[in-house]
Amino acid sequence: MSIQHRLVEYTDGDTLLEGYLAYDDAISGPRPCVIIAHTWAGRSDFECAQANKLAALGYVGFALDMYGKGVLGSDPDENGALMNPFMENRPALQQRMAAALSTASQQPEVDAAKMASTGYCFGGLCSLDLARTSGDILGAVSFHGLFLAPGNTEGNKISAKVLCLHGHEDPMVPVESVIALEKELTAAGADWQIHVYGNTLHAFTNPAAASPEMGMAYNATAERRSWASLVNFLEEIFE
After folding, report:
1. Which helix (H) or strand (E) holds 54?
2. What domains does the chain contain, in order, with CATH numbers?
């Protein structure tokens, strides 16, 4: 087994984007693909590492780009300035996710009939919005993501299976938001799961998260449990 990767340029309108694609070259032929939406800071080594881990499981991992080639935030102010326009314009967010899905599905290593999305923090919301608006994915996963409904998908049916992995003490997603998402997914006819980890803050999968005063902290146990849930989920949707 040898994990290979390449950078893939693509566009959304006039914006040049760059994704990171990882795959195992010991596997021949197209295989299922998981696209990975990044945190509010932009596509970083963290998301690329997740793509590599998915490639080691026999999938194609595609760490997508929401902001533009080479565009990264370096502090909370910059991160917010990059994320907020998409939070305020969810159709634009959904269009950019669709561009990433289309690009990934066209790669020669990918079986376009077996696509899924996942995402972290802001990316978790992006993954959920793809499920809300696309019938071309089999599953959508959110790791410590935001649950806010976009406001433009009422009445849509969700055909993708949905898995949300959530820290109970995440100050960005109070219990009321969890209940609202449960109601939304049920009304949309989705096959959904929400796994809630007790005594767990936001960003629990990221070893670099160390700001409990801001509600963000790494939790090795929650990371291990959530990854196992992801593995089981992907095996189910791609069987």
Report:
1. helix 45-56
2. 3-237 (3.40.50.1820)
